[in-house]
Amino acid sequence: MTVTVQQMLAAAEAVVPRIAPDEAKGLIGRPDVVFLDVREPNEVAVSGKVPGALAIPRGLVEFRADPASALHDANFDRAKTIIAYCASGGRSALVLKTLHDMGYENVRNLGGFKGWVDAGGEVEKA
User: Fold this and answer.
1) How many CB atoms lie within 10 A of CB 90?
2) What is the pLDDT of residues 65-79, one digit of tens each?
């Protein structure tokens, strides 16, 4: 059985709730919340990121999130809320679905970085 990207996105969106930029703004700096930018390093370098966000490309997130991995990042904690974003919301949805499958229950998709900027969200240069 083959699965299309659209089917994968639909499955992710069925599990991962969205969070509006205005709601997310109030969560910056909270110790129980991790903002996660899953864009490629060159994308982050050009546009910046949400202040304090971890910038980890989509292809490395699972390795950073798994406590058994040699690449584990201690910022990943299953008790925290993970709010991810990318350029348009697709990569972040897929990453969050994977994190959910890995036991991270509190995940939210901020969607695209442009939506954050358009809503007046702060930007930190990378």
Assistant:
1) 19
2) 999 999 999 999 999
32-to-29, 48, 49, 54, 79 alpha-carbon distances in Å:
9, 23, 19, 14, 7
In DSSP terms, which residues pair with 86 in a beta bridge? Answer: 112
Total Cβ atoms within 10 A of residue 57:
18
> Which residues are registered as beta bridge partners of 18?
109
Whether the Cβ atoms of residue 104 and residue 16 lie closer than 8 Å to each other: no
3-state secondary structure of 81: strand
Pairwise CA distance, residues 85 & 31, whole Å: 19
Beta strand segments in the chain, E = 33-37, 54-55, 81-86, 107-112
Reported as half-sphere exposure (CB side, CA atoms, 13 A), residue 47 has a value of 20
Alpha-carbon gap, residue 91 to 87, rounded angstroms: 8
pLDDT at 27: 98
Contact 88, 112 (CB under 8 A): yes
